[in-house]
Each structure stands twice: as structure tokens, then as C-alpha cells.
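Lab channel / #folding
Pinned by the channel admin:
"Please post every new chain as: sequence first, then the C-alpha cells as a reply. Keep commentary short and put observations after the output so the thread stays searchable."

First post following the new format, from NK:
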Amino acid sequence: MLEVNPRPIPAAGLSIAEAAHRTGVSAHTLRYYERAGLVVTTVDRTAGGRRRYRQIDLDWIKVCTKLRATGMPIRVIRRYAELVCAGHGNEQERLALMTAHRAEVVARIAELTENLKAIDHKIDVYRGRLAAGDADRLWAPRAS
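Reply from TO:
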């Protein structure tokens, strides 16, 4: 569960469990994002090797989760992370990447909207038939 009003992050950073809680993803997902090259910073470690997350890490992970939730493939998020890590000079490529993804999301929203209209129509038909008392007249396939 994503924390709504997060407390400030201590100077020592957050454990992976705390970071998972704050970002709304599992510890497994946090580790995967690192292995997959999606994280733009090097996550700090304790002397014992345990991860310690800073605000910048959490902010980036939240960006990644939003991109994944909108269907951006891991390879594209990785490319975006590479561009961010490379620094200034590739802003046009970043913009093109985001613009293309936005167009894909808008197209999916339009498709979902059309599908939702069909579902709403079916709901209206069932409600109407139930209210009229003749729901038994709704079409049902019969075995041959």
C-alpha cells in the first residue's frame, strides 16, 4: 500500500521493506528494478550490504511504477533510465519516448472507453429486462 503522507526519510535511508511500503511495490520488485537497469541511482548499502533507499530512489521508483502501470515495456523504461543517467543533451529523445508512450496510452484509453460502452449497454439491457419482469426472454445459447 502506497503511503499517503510519508514521513521524511532519515539520513541513513530506508530499508527495502520501508521503501517497498512507501512506493507500493514489493521488495522483490525493487530488487528486480535494480537488476533490470531501471534505477537511475546507485542504491546505498549499509556496511553489511543491506540496501538503503533515499528520497531520490523512491521518486524514481514511483516514476517506473507509473510507466509500468500504463503499459510501458521494461526495455523502454530501461532506455529511458539510460537517457536520464546520460544527463543533458538527449532531452529530445526523452521527449520523443514519452510522447510515443502517451499516444499509446491514449489509444488504449479510447479502446477501453469503447469496450466500456458495450458493457454499459449490456448492463442497461439486463436492468431493463429485470425491471420489466421479462428477463427470461433474454437470449441464451442452446446446446444442439
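NK: The mean pLDDT is 92.
TO: also worth noting, Strands lie at 44-45, 51-52.
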